[in-house]
Every structure is written in structure tokens, then in C-alpha cells.
Amino acid sequence: IRRDICTDHCAEYQQGVLTGDLCEDLCVAGRVEYKRCLYYENGKKVMAASWRGVPVVLKSKLENFSSYEALALLEYQDTAGGTGGEEELSPLDVVFYATLEIKNSLGLETGTNLTLPRLWGQKLKENERTYSRAELASLWALLQQEEYTFLRVLQDLTQHVAKILGSCGHFYAVEYLAAGHAWDQHIFSLEELTLSPSPSPWSGQEKTITARDMVPRVALSFLEMVEHFENDFSHSLHLCDIKPENFAIRKDLTVVAIDVDMAFFEPKMRDILEQNCTSDNDCNFFDCISKCDKTKNRCGPKRKNSNLQVICEKIFRPWFSPTLLGAKAGLPLQVALQRAVQECAEIDGGEDAKRSRAVRKQLQDLLVELIQEDTENQGEDQEHKTRRVHTALNF
Asked: Locations of Basic residues compositional bias (predicted)?
């Protein structure tokens, strides 16, 4: 990784231009080990690495620190005869400028409903410290990256987004997780779960997890995520690019959104949807769609479908198909589940909220029942094996 980043990046760290909790390990101690490049285009870098033995993904939207817009306040201090390199700002200043940038990035009005500035402000007050120019310049470069801002804001509020573990200048480290694959019939690979550093509830000998057992548990986590994104923030959060590759799972089978370039809170979603149109087709923004009002030739600002409907259509329907289930496909519980998924995929969730809630509850109940059935069957299999062993010993 030294060859790739450290030449210029670490020189700037040594000069006091940028900083972060990852810098010392990256530039001095050599505790960050480069594994492979995952993506590199138009200056955007995404790399797999190991930080103190923990797999991480290192990201930056632009290649060089100097490519990011400088914090105007720091430039003002320089021209106004500030004290230079040691100039510091108060925690309140940091919260104020960070809040403005978050508002602009996420399209949120930061009123009394947005909890983050208060939450961060409280933490900063407890620290009772000021912030150096290098810290502020690094923070400002990070806040100009929409994904960083989004993940950093939400990771304090939900377990369903990837966690940022640290940063150095404009580079930030995100937890490495087992991502989904469109070509894998189970979507998530059991083998890849071993790479994820999060604790596993199945690490003991008493429970072995199979791909078939994994599917309903992960599906339940998808439903929990949908409900969470819809109801638990100041505004609903819309996912406009729903496909297996944009989600990952931790070892505890929690579903995590890992690509949030196409995730928008309600105010920004309305701005995106409300465009000129001549037909409904003009009102499709990837997986987020609305209707064309032909009297005004404008798309409606309210989304017609929902996160749940698209997840049912694109993820649940292939998952619970007779092809994947094989011999089990004809069982009453599986047939009921397939019907519920089909109904869910066809519902216009944005328009019929009551029906959407009922379908979600039905799916949840069926998945819980399926997990209980699988657990009981596994218990019977274990008991059968135990009896067989005893018979063999007696013989």
C-alpha cells in the first residue's frame, strides 16, 4: 500500500497538511497491508486492505487531497492574518460547518428533527477540545464525499449500513463484508462470511448454518431494514438501485447497505422525481418510480413503488422460487411464502400503505415459521444421528 498511496499522501501527513486515526498505522507503523484494487476510475479508488489484521475496504472519491475544495474558513483565517498552522476552531464551529455540508449533501433541512448535529455536538462538548487545521481540512475533504457523509451520519442510527472504521485525509476505511452476487443462487456465499470480522452466533458446535437455513434469516433482516429505513428517521430513506451486489451481510446475518450512491431521503427523492414528462416511462428513476400528470406534464413528487416492493421483486422472488427450493417447493409453508412474495412484488407500496404493511407482516410471520421449522428439523436430524451412534456402539 505504500507504493500506491503513501508517496504523496503520507508526505502530506508528515507535513501536517492532513491527518486521521488511520494515518499513523498507514504511513509510519506499516500496519495497513494492501491486498488488491477493487475499483479505479476517474480518480475514484476502492481497495481491499488489512488494518491490524482486520479486513477493510479503503475508499476515496478523488485521487488527491488537493482535488477537494478547501474549507473557506481556513482560507479566510489566512487572509485575515490568522496565526497560521496552529489556528484552531471551537467544537461549535465544527458542528456548524459539518451540519451545513451534511444538509447540502443529503438534501435534508436541518431542523429540530435531525438528531445528528445535537448528538455530535454533545460528544464534542464532552471532549472539550479544539480542532487543528489538518483535522478540519481532512474532515472537509471527507464530507465532500457523499458516501462517507451518508454512512457516517447513519452508522450512529442504524446497524443496516456499513461502518466507517477510520480515515486518513480523504481516504476512509469501511468494514469488509460478504457482498451479494447476482450469479449465486443463494445470493450470499457462506464461504465469504468467514472473511467478515464481526462475531458469529453460529461459531459454536451446537449450530451449523446451511445456505437453506441462511436464506429466511437474511430475508427477515431485509424486512427489518425496510421498516427501519421507512419509519425510524426524520424522513423515509429510498433505495433506488436494489440488486444483490449493493448489499452485504455480517456474520450475524444482518443485511447491510454497502453501495449508497443511489439512496435518498424523502426531500431529495421528491426533487429527483419531479421532472417534466409526457408518459409514465419518463418518471422512472432506476428503481424509484412515480406517475406522469399529463395535465401538467410533470412527474409526481411522491414515489409510486417502495423499497419493499422492489426487494420482493428483485431479491425475494428469485430466492423463494421453486427452482431453488427443489423438493421442498410444494410444501404448504413454501407455497404460502411464494404467494406472499408475489403479492408483495406486485403491490404499489407508495400508494397503498395499509396493504403494504399487511403483506410485510405476512412475510415476516411466514419466515419466522420457516426458521422454527428448520430448527426443529435440525434438532430431529441431530437426535437421529445420536441414536444411530449409540446403536453402533451397542452393536
From this structure: 385-395
